[in-house]
Amino acid sequence: MRGLIVDYVGVLDADDEDQRRWRSLLAAVRDAGVASAILSNDPGGEGADQIREWEFRGIVDAVVLSGEIGFEKPEREAFQAAADAIEADLSDCVLIDDDILNVRGAVDNGLIGILHTSFDRTVVEIQSLFEIEGEF
To answer: Tell me, what DSSP letter sits at residue 46?
Structure first.
C-alpha cells in the first residue's frame, strides 16, 4: 500500500486530543513512505480553510475537495482524483471514512476501505496495513 486517503468530517474533525493523535499517526505513515490525502465532499471555498490547513502544515500531502473537482464520494472519479494527487494507483490506496456507502464505493473501485467509528479502532487497522508500530 502506497496511499492513505482520509475523510475529514466525521474522521479528522475530532476533538483536540484525537486530532493530536491523528497528526502523530499521519507522521508515522509518512515516515513509512506512504503518501496521504484528505478527500472530502466539502464544496470548497473559504469555508474549507480548516481542511486545507492539514496540507499547508504538511500533515498530509494533498487535500481534494469534491466541490473543486466536480465529483463526490462514492464516485470513482473522486477516489481517482485523491489517488492522483498523491501519485498512487487506486489499488495501492486505503480509504478511511465514517460513511459505509463511501467505504463500499472505495472497495468497489479497488481500494481497501476502513469504516471509521473511533480512533482506537482505526489506528489498529492502519498499523496493521502499513506495518507501523508505536502508541498514538
So the answer is: G
Q: Which DSSP string do the residues of 48-83 spell out, in sequence order?
A: GHHHHHHHHTTSSSEEEEHHHHT--TTSHHHHHHHH
Helices (H) then strands (E): counts for the chain: 6, 5
Q: For 35-56, what is each residue's pLDDT tens digit?
A: 999 999 999 988 899 999 999 9
Report the alpha-carbon distance of residue 111 to residue 119 in Å, rounded: 20
Percentage helix, strand, coil for the chain under 3-state DSSP, each rounded to 5: 50, 15, 30
The Cα 17–Cα 131 span in angstroms is 23
Q: How many angstroms separate the CA atoms of 121 and 54, rounded?
A: 22
C-alpha cell at 24: 502523530
Write down the pTM of the prediction: 0.97
Amino acid of residue 19: Q
Q: Are 5 and 114 in contact (CB under 8 A)?
A: no
The cell numbers describing 130, all together, are 502499513
Q: What is the pLDDT of residues 99-109, one digit of tens each?
A: 999 999 999 99
